[in-house]
Amino acid sequence: MTQPLLSVNNLTHLYAPGKGFNNVSFDLWPGEVLGIVGESGSGKTTLLKSISSRLIPQSGEVQYQNRSLYGMSEADRRRLLRTEWGVVHQHPLDGLRRQVSAGGNIGERLMATGARHYGEIRATARRWLEEVEIPASRIDDLPTTFSGGMQQRLQIARNLVTHPRLVFM
C-alpha cells in the first residue's frame, strides 16, 4: 500500500484566544483533493502556512513523503516550495514578483527545476499563459498591469508549470 503524500498530526497554532487552529490531523493521498473551510479568522490561512512550511506551528508534526517537514533544513523546505510544491496565495501579488514580467515569473519556476534554454522557457511560458486564458501577447508585461483575476491566473500558471506533486491554494 502507498503512503500518504502529506500527513498532518496534532498541529496547533493559536495566535489569540480562539484564533488559529488546534490539534488538526489528516492524511492527504496522491491524487486526492482536500478543502479546508471555515469562517473568517478561523485559522485557514494560518493552517495553510503551517502545512506549507511558511510558518512553524506551536506543536504537532507535518510529514511529506514520510519525512518530517520541520526536521528538514530551511534549504530543503525552500527547494520543496520551488519544485515539488506550488502555493497560490490568497492575495495574488503576494505570489508574484511584481518587477518581473509575466513570462519571467513563469520562467523562474522552470529555472528552479533546471531549465536553462531561453527559447524553450519562453515558449513554455507562452503556452501556460494561454492555458490560464491570459493572451500570450502579455508575456512581457508586469503583473502589476494585470487585473486581480489575471494576477491570480498568472500565479496558477507559475505554480503548475513545474507539475508540482502538491498545490496549496
Automatic annotation (TrEMBL):
Residues 21-168 form the ABC transporter domain. Keywords: ATP-binding, Nucleotide-binding. GO terms for biological process: organic phosphonate catabolic process. One of its GO terms (molecular function) is ATP binding. It holds the Pfam family ABC_tran. This is ATP-binding cassette domain-containing protein.
